[in-house]
Specification:
This protein is mainly α. It is 71% helix and 0% strand. The protein contains two helices and no strands. The relative contact order is 0.07.
Amino acid sequence: MQSIIKFEFKEHLKTSQATFESIGHSVEVAAKLCIDCLKNGNKILLFGNGGSAADAQHMPQNWSADTKPNAKVWQRLP
């Protein structure tokens, strides 16, 4: 059993490393754009269909909660 678990973890790490090498810079650029947007008083609109809509509803709350205990919760559109 340990060999299976070890194999799966190694595969996960290889996939994570390849993903980072492939899109790490793009994620950094996107994060900086979001930060600049918010610092300038603008909004980030998130939307989706089905499960993606649920993700779009929860992401702002999760991001706010992860930054500071008393962080302002992002406004959402009705």
